[in-house]
Amino acid sequence: MSAADHPGVIVRPPVLYAAALGSALALRWWHPFPIGTHAATLWPGIALLVLGLGLIVWGRRTLLAAGTAIDPKRPTTVLVTGGPFRHSRNPLYVAVTGLFIGLALVADTWWGIGALLPVLVVMHYGVVLREERYLEAKFGDAYHNHRISVRRYM
User: Fold this and answer.
1) Among residues 94, 77, 76, which one has the least CA distance to residue 85?
2) C-alpha distances in angstroms, 41 versus 5, 26, 47, 78, 103?
3) What dihedral do alpha carbons 41, 46, 51, 53 form, nearest 10°?
4) Minimal CB count within 10 Å: which of 3, 59, 88, 147?
5) Rounded CA gap, 122 and 118, in Å?
6) How far apart are the C-alpha atoms of 112 and 109, rounded to whole Å?
7) Which residues have C-beta within 8 Å of that of residue 96, sequence separation ≥ 6?
8) How many CB atoms lie within 10 A of CB 68?
9) What confidence category does residue 144 fall into, taking pLDDT thresholds of 50, 70 and 90?
10) What share of the chain is helix, strand, coil (3-state, %, to 5)?
11) pLDDT over 90 at 138, yes or no
12) How buried is residue 51: exposed, middle or buried, by Cβ count under 10 Å (0-12/13-18/19+)?
């Protein structure tokens, strides 16, 4: 394995999302900034949490069954195009974003939505685009064909 055999992402996505969630919850404690009533946001938030967790489990199982790394700081050993990767090139990132929005709704705070916006910018430019360049260089036409036939996010 080459020391350069990784996409060169600038941050591990779970760390980025966790830091943003921690910031949003700290801001909520300081000033709640509710989205609506807790009763109105609780159940949609729980639904997003369940959907996000289900997609994460499906995506992780698909990657593990293929025998490739889940951590974007590690080499990708095989191009995975099955499971949720048939529908999105980044289903785990879609799932974590859904979880994040679900948690913001359960916590009933606009701070969560506000904290998510810079996360999405960092994810797109600092993680996803870097992964795409890496996968294109590593898998060539196979990744190119996958990229043109499957949406980046949803």
Assistant:
1) 94
2) 43, 19, 10, 40, 10
3) 130
4) 3
5) 6
6) 6
7) 13, 14, 17, 52, 56
8) 15
9) very high
10) 70, 0, 30
11) yes
12) middle
Query: In this predicted model, what pLDDT tens digit does every residue of 34-76 receive, in sequence order?
Result: 999 989 999 999 999 999 999 999 999 999 999 999 998 899 9
DSSP assignments along 103-123, one per residue: HHHHHT-HHHHHHHHHHHHHI
Residues in the chain: 154
**Separation CA 107–CA 44 (nearest Å):** 11
Inter-residue contact 24 to 115 (CB < 8 Å): yes
Amino acid identity at 135: L
- Tokens 């910018």 sit on residue: 121
Cα 139 to Cα 77, 81, 133, 136, distances in angstroms: 10, 12, 10, 5
